[in-house]
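ESCALATION

Customer reports they have been waiting on this structure for their group meeting. Please prioritize. Original submission:
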Amino acid sequence: MKVYIVRHGQVPHNALKQYNTKDEDLTELGITQAEELKDKIKNMKFDIIISSPLMRAKHTANILNVNNNKIIYNDLIRERSYGDLSGKPVEVTNREEYWNYYTTIQYGTSENIKLFFERVYKFLDELKKEDYENVLIVAHSGVSKAFYGYFNGIPEDGKFLNLGLKNCEIKEYIL
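Update from on-call: job pushed to the front of the queue and completed.
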């Protein structure tokens, strides 16, 4: 099965470089990014689209759904919860450490990275049981980092900060 993961288009907290767990919609730039990706993938055929239930991912999935595929929403691919970091600038944490799989630092009430990856891995393990050829996943930067870890293993240094997708970037994996 080919699995294509896309990160949603830009949202306000991306532009402001903040942690945020609010359910935000796309900015005008985010809509433009999704429209541009739609043009790039319009000839690709997907059996199904699976999206995070957060508004930014749902909106992106709807824009990308040129063939009127069924869209399923799955809580397992929600973004990592930032907890009480929500609304704060990303500089309040050591970003390398925040996205280090082996960290022993807990930043406030944010979701533990190992538990977050386990949640995304559970999604992928469940997806393996399905009989699809091509699946489009619309999710988040953190989810794309977990996908990287699932398919490529955990880097020796545990660092995932720069391994996630940019807004409306797409990556293919074989599951």
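Sent to customer with the following note: The two ends are 5 Å apart (CA to CA).
Escalation resolved.
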